Amino acid sequence: MTDPERTRRESEGLGVDLAGTVAATHQIAGKPSLTREPIFQLKDVSVRYDAKLAVDDVGIDMFRNHITALIGPSGCGKSTLIRCLNRMNDLIPSASVDGHIIYHGQDLYGQEVDPVEVRKRIGMVFQKPNPFPKSIYDNIAFGPRILGMKGDMDEIVERALRGAALWDEVKDRLGDNAFGMSGGQQQRLCIARCMAVEPDVILMDEPCSALDPISTGKIEDLMMELKENYSIVIVTHNMQQAARVSDMTAFLIVELDAAEKNRWGRVIEYDETEKIFTNPSDQRTEDYVTGKVG
Amino acid sequence: MSPPPPASADAATVRVPGAQFVTDGATRLKEIGFAALLLTLLGIALLTLLVLMIDVIVEGASSITPEFFTETPSRIDPESSGIAPAIWGTVWLMIVCAAFIIPVGVASAIYLEEYASRENWFARFVEVNIQNLAAVPSIVYGVLGLAFLVRGPLSLGNVVLAGGLTLGLLVLPVVIVAGREAIRAVPPSIREGSMALGATKWQTIWKQVLPASIPGIATGVILALSRAIGETAPLIVVGATAFATSTSTALLQEFSALPIQIFGWTADPQEAFKALAAGAIIVLMVILLGMNAIAIWLRNRYEQKW
């Protein structure tokens, strides 16, 4: 199966079957009656910066309590795509998104949807750790405070830090400025900060690209724990990382027009991670995951 | 590795190992000469300032007595003259000025940095004009204050409020420019991090961007005030008086100010008043240096390294 169009139709087919439903059972080849609840259903999602196409026509489903990885070469639009899922692209004036992203039966790009409300439920961790220039405690407490969350703030902070496996390292210096932490700690603080507002989904945009292998290992362990309670979507350029942690993987490629002037990204294969890495349907996926290109 | 051009024909033929690393005397002399020239020019600038300061201190030191700070100025008797009304006038001017420039300047900076789009013609128009305003001679602001605040639409009279607002208009561009720089220095990743938690744009600005830029804004405000504190021309135009007899304590009273007092005394033919003027210059200079020191300290102590 090397026909990319066929792969694409198949992956889109998943979404078509599910239109309008919140929960459904998917029949995945080789794994009969595996119950999965889709959390995001992307339909014909294209992203443009001004008139320039960046991501073309994505139609895939992402599932609850799964880690979904987006992989692909530089410039394939994986970061652009993940930033659609909590409407962070709205912050870029030139960006426009077509198509539908159905989240719990509601189109995130519907007319009446407030992006601020979307981001309360769908958190995000960024490529470079971006702690606020405040104390460790205030970094965590910021979200719950602005959202007016009820409850004991000390407890909320402790729970979030424990959740991000950071509590033991920082419990004696909660008042210290977060800028004094190591890069790995800062990134776990950002994950804890995200968890403190109790989102449904955590989006991670290359969360380990600025970290050393030990810190990366800690974050990966953390992701495995987090998927018990959260759904995670991760962008990574590290294929081993995708293979280690994710349940489903989408592979994006860079397309060029005839004049080779414009380039944009497209999902050419989306399947279970195991299949993507051991028996991909598309030759280009195989070339990429085996390191022949990329 | 190509050796430097030989100093003479001899040097080219007789190759001593290591000799190629030796610069000839003329080149080295030129280097030293240039550095010395720069140092001299710097020295002229510093020396002028130093001579001025020493001259003022020598002339004015004897005037600085406790009574100097508590007495009111006199036209006739230098012995019993002081700068109390001028000091209080300056304090009041600075309070009015700060109360005006902080909210207006910070709000303008926030709008221009966070809300106005770069392509917006209005924003660009405002931006260019802020640069222009900073270059307008201060006397023009004085005329503006006279026409619109002292007389004209507001008709406040020649009072502290009118003087402070005039100085505020004069230094507002400084605050806006400093505020914008401070806000721009907060990296976009902080805004993204805040928005990703579900904060609104306003919450992000108010709780993240502004607190992070306060040191920069405060530095800008202090530098603006230290410019305003020495301004004389606009105050003369709006009608500050050099011989106030009471320490003005209300916004709607006539007022004096340190530079006005200095100006009034230096114009007096009596030598004794010149010493008083020098004394007042010392006081103004100490205040100014103090304010600048605070600005530098603020910047070094609280500036965020991203």
Q: Could you describe the 3D structure shown?
A:
With 294 residues, chain A is an alpha/beta fold. Chain A has 11 helices and 13 strands. In chain A, the strands form 3 sheets. In chain A, strands 9-10-11-6-12-13 form a 6-stranded mixed β-sheet. In chain A, strands 3, 4, 5, 7 and 8 form a 5-stranded antiparallel β-sheet that branches. In chain A, helix 4 (136-146) packs parallel to helix 7 and helix 7 (183-196) packs parallel to helix 8. Chain A starts with a helix and ends in a 5-residue tail after the last helix. The relative contact order of chain A is 0.17. Chain B has 12 helices and no strands. In chain B, helix 4 packs across helix 11 and helix 6 packs across helix 7 (160-184). Chain B folds into 2 domains: 9-63; 68-302, Orthogonal Bundle (MetI-like fold). The two termini of chain B are 41 Å apart. Chain B has helices at 9-13, 25-60, 66-70, 84-115, 121-134, 138-150, 160-184, 188-196, 201-228, 233-238, 258-266, 271-302. Helix content of chain B is 70%, strand content 0%. The interface between A and B is medium-sized, with 27 and 21 residues.
